[in-house]
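Please check this:
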Amino acid sequence: MMKIQTKVAYLALAMSAALLTGCGDTTVTINELPPIVGDDHDHDDDHDHGGVNAAGRLVLSAIDSAFVQVLELPAKTELNTFVVSTTPSALYASGDYRYAAVVQRNDDLVQFIDGGLWQEDHVDHMDDFQAAPRLMPFQLSQVRPTHFSAADGQLAVFFDGNAATGAAAGVAVLTDADIGEDRSDYPQLSLTTHQHGLAQPRGEFLISSIRDANSSTTLPDQVGLYHQHGDHFDLEEIFAVSCPNMHGSAQNHEFIAFGCSDGVLLIEQDGETFTASKLANTDEFSGSMRIGTLAGHDAAEHFIGLAGAAVFAIDAEDAEMALLDWQPGAATAIWGYGFAEQGEKFVLLDNTGALTIFNYHGHEHEGSDEPAFEFAAKLALTAANLADLPAGARFQLAISAADDKVYVTDPIARQLHTIDLHDAEVVNTKQLNFIPHRITWLGIAEPEHGHHDH
């Protein structure tokens, strides 16, 4: 069985001086704050957080640096800065948005930062709490952590393995409780060979990619259904519908979708029954064009599929795919994307530094000519020459799960923008004293993001 070790990795703040000297002209202050616990709640109002910060917190990393900073929203004031082991390659939120997974892929390491905002279920009401952020003892140390998929309070981490060393791929499925309690008995899946794969958690089930060890590509072409038994998953079924050169996955309440070179593999869940089908590429596809990125939301009936700079609305229930006109202008790539405002909007951040906003209507206009995704606005967030982007940097997007705000970093101007999606405008810009790299949002999600039985 794949072994993922956990160990204490608190780094002394005295190390920060050595770190900061390696950040060029970056200057960061490390603040230690006393814990703050909010327990004065009005249980008659689900939206009253009883003095606990409802806007959330942001976690940012800097280019070519091992420090990670936590900012308090909405003012974006600095709470803490932590020294991790190496420069983060990515930041992701945990299943319930309490923890930031600080990914250090090439070093086979994932560390976790507690954002300090969480909610506890007391059956007849929810209690909200807040405390100072902290670096957690819990770590993952399997080979090449790459794809992270969160849903219904679970986070699936897919480890690609390594062809050169013969290390096989695997999956770990975590809850926030696993991270917070430094547990080692969370369920894991051990695969038989390396692969650039992916997995989607579905309660006691896991949908994971499978690669033929004799394949000439690192991309998988099959999907398996696994069932949790204690600390491991057992294979129940390999779906007969193939998915060549698989890349990209997402889920909503009823479906799990995987991007294939010839279309999208759709797996529908009805209780404990899973059924696979293929939605073929439409006439808009040509040459090597394929959907390699997917986005979904529990409250949305449609998926969004990205094929380079082309954007498709995917109706899994009706097995339809439609090209969206997102008015890309000079944009040739999409750098950030996702559903926002509890699934009522969808946003795209492109490589011109512009943010495109769609209103999502779902099947609200079924039977009419109204599209599911309605173009709402496009905001140009920079007038700078994109050739001035620092090496390895690009604009990054973080989406709040608590309100109608999204956050975009500008590494050229060293700025952090707050965008109000309802009014489609930049409402605040913070000047940073470092070049931002990765970003994610943490906090207490709105009630619509509650867990569902599939």
Remarks:
- The radius of gyration is 21 Å.
- Residues 16-21 form the longest helix (6 residues).
- Residues 311 and 324 are 6 Å apart (CA to CA).
- The mean pLDDT is 89.
